[in-house]
Amino acid sequence: MPPPKDVVKIAIQMVGAIPQLIELQQTKPLASVLKDVCDAWSLPNAERYALQYADGRQTYITESNRRDIKNGSILRLTTSPDQEAEQLYIGIQSKNVDVKTDSLKKLASLSQDITFAQEFISRNGLKQIYSIVEEGNDTGEMLAHTLKAFTELMEHDFVSWENLSTVFIKKIVSYVNMNAVDASIQQLSLSILENMVPTSRLLFEVVKKEVTLDRLLTHLQATNAQLQLKAMALLIALLLSATDAERRDMMDYLREKNIRQFIHKNIIHSSEPLGDEMAHYLYVLQSVSLNLCEHRMKMSMDAFSQEQRDLLQSLRQTAFESESEVPAGTFSTERRRSLCAKEFRKLGFMNNSNPAEDLRRAPPGLLALDNMVYFSRNTPNAYSRFILENSSREDKHECPFARSSIQLTLILCEILHIGEPCSETAQAFYPMFFGQDHFFEELFCICIQLVNKTWKEMRATQEDFDKVMQVVREQITRTLSLKPTSLELFKTRVNALNYSEILKLRQTERLHQEETLAVPVLELREKLKPELLELIRQQRLLHLCEGTLFRKISSRRRQDKLWYCRLSPNHKVLHYGDVEEGVQSPPIESLTEKIPVADMKMLLVGKECPHTKEKSSGKQNKDVLELAFSIVHDVEECCLNFVAPTRYEFCLWTDGLNVLLGKEMTSERTQTDLDVLLSMELKLRLLDLENISIPDDPPPIPKPPSNLNFCYDFSHAEQ
């Protein structure tokens, strides 16, 4: 007979005593439970004790979290949080160095628990932490424990970062700026500053002033991977908190210091594999850099701006230099205006009498003009060849340079997500971005020449302009999906993907669609579906058994903390628990938290999840909404909240959990996988029918013969 809903069977340990096996009444006050446990071991003063989990993070049990206790949990009787906080508060003030160090070490460990942290902070414990940092000159083990304890205490958000004194902040900054200091102290100091920067404008300005970009670059060049990671985290925090003007200045300075080349050589192509956290920071750095183009992208051309008009005229003068050298007095004003209009028409402007009108559309706005000018100045031969080659073509067959440039700039902005806020979880960056200064402009230079090449291959006319640009978009998108490591490799691959190759790819996809639409084939597909869906279900469960590393996301910042979740091999229990950075696949025994599959009630996704409702709404959280899911479990309907690292993981986990709940798999990945498997299976089944047309209706069954005397009688042959 199953135990009542409000009763859990648990074990309670104590050092030097035989464990107690009890049935915990969840309706019974925790103080009464502790009294009974202490009485069983003849311990006086039950109020001085508390229960905490024996494994994992060893969280204290309180009235608010007691419902999380599961059947079979192992608890430990220990000193109560208020007693522990009092002892450590006294211990960290001790004159004995060993006692002080041990107290700080224990404080750093216990501060992860919110109940203990509340007790310690209520005793003004943070003031003692400040004093140790501000007054002490030690840079060894004691300081490392102090900074770790401070970081953990501040993580609970009981105290505002703005309450920190100037002396404390400058001391933390000094550890970052010192050379002769332990790497662990520098890592903790960088992490503290990273947390500090987004909280207020004042703290941002202090950190930006005290920690120079040169100093951060020095840490980025360190061989210590964790120090490198924390330095990158602080750099990203500064960039995200800066104003547009400050961000532009910072990026210009970093460009002068060749940070991209350093990242490309020593981080992306390092012998060590790139971690998820660093991949995210590189994505943000790429996004921030590309978004510097947003201002020009959204700005329309001002016909009264002399600077903009000069840029426009420079395009004409570079292309038709010899014709423009005719002395001013040779032609009348009307004749010169007519000549200019003719040259702007050759440049591909639709409004040749007033080309500024073509650049009024925003986006791409002035960014298109900037790209055209960059192309004309940095690759003048290619620019002149493009213009002159099309000038000599017959009418309607010339590729309009200006019109193509404007549309191409818009396409590149859309593909590279310029003007969109940074995702909180994305890790997808282009390695070639870090191998080249002026990446966007150089990419444009390659792609505008691709437009001309594709135009010729398609033998296009002006009416085909949209078709050509659609093909070019496809060429760029398909090539970028291959993640080329350099612009040269991108150029080689995108040029190899010519119009005939695009047609072949499209034809293959179209034939595949057509052959799978025949009635007999559709019937065969339906017969194969159940078997293949079962194969997908098994793959999803296998993926859950292998497990996945998840990150903890808060509304304040992207967290460093990781946790791992995996399904038991018998598909009956979900195991999960916190892990350290660098742990790829922890053994199932090390994951102390458990949820029986039988206790799982439902799966929530997106906006329905409790942890997405807690976060502030806004564009920046769109990616979190797309990757969030929660498992509702137990009688009390507790939730285990997830934010998947990628859309792929989101699909596999939500499918797997739906399988465990006995529901249909609903992710888009299920349909994609099913289509791939069906396609492969159908091709194998229809291999013998190649080049044979399949009729829509089955052939008629012939009438039975009038007699069956045509059968051969073997008995006569034997005689």
UniProtKB/TrEMBL annotation:
User: What organism does the UniProt record list as the source?
Assistant: Prunella fulvescens
Q: Name one GO molecular function term.
A: SH3 domain binding
Signal: present as a keyword of the record?
Answer: no
Which gene produces this protein?
Answer: Elmo3
The entry's protein name is ELMO3 protein
Q: Which InterPro entries match?
A: ARM-like, ARM-type_fold, ELMO_ARM, ELMO_dom, ELMO_domain-containing, PH-like_dom_sf, PH_domain
What sequence ranges are listed for the domain ELMO?
307-480
Gene Ontology BP term (one): apoptotic process
Name the Pfam families for this protein. Answer: ELMO_ARM, ELMO_CED12, PH_12
Q: Which PROSITE patterns match?
A: ELMO
As for what it does, the entry says:
Involved in cytoskeletal rearrangements required for phagocytosis of apoptotic cells and cell motility. Acts in association with DOCK1 and CRK. Was initially proposed to be required in complex with DOCK1 to activate Rac Rho small GTPases. May enhance the guanine nucleotide exchange factor (GEF) activity of DOCK1.
UniProt KW keywords: Apoptosis, Phagocytosis, SH3-binding
